[in-house]
Amino acid sequence: MKNTIGRRQQINVSLNTRVLIFDCISFAFVLLFIYTACSKILTFSVFTETLAKLPLIGGCAGFLAYAIPAVEILISLLLIIPLAKRLGMIAALLLMSLFTLFLVYMVATVTYLPCSCGGVISRLSWEQHILFNTAFIIAAIFGLRINRR
Q: What range defines the domain where residue 107 resides?
């Protein structure tokens, strides 16, 4: 009997399966980012006004109203381009982590919490937002782990 204490279990998954999983996670991020970017662009003035009401970033609302959808679209493009997918996943992970840290800060320190996400996602409570984002963060980490070079 082999001693397995202290050894990490490895699950052998074929390359094709790993690529498929990574592509599915990438596609989920593309859908999320394109959907939210379009929603923000279509309701640009409301999005800008909502950003202006947020602590920490309210002073940069004008810049962020353009930058956030642009970054979401840029990351989506990276996730579509085969040679840039891994970079796109890293960027998606960083962006979702940043959004989530901001949400946690907001929930912990602010009593009035306007949402600037856009679309159906803006109907989530802030706690649900954190869980939603955390699920995407976990998916990105998982995707990056199975797609090691």
A: 15-146
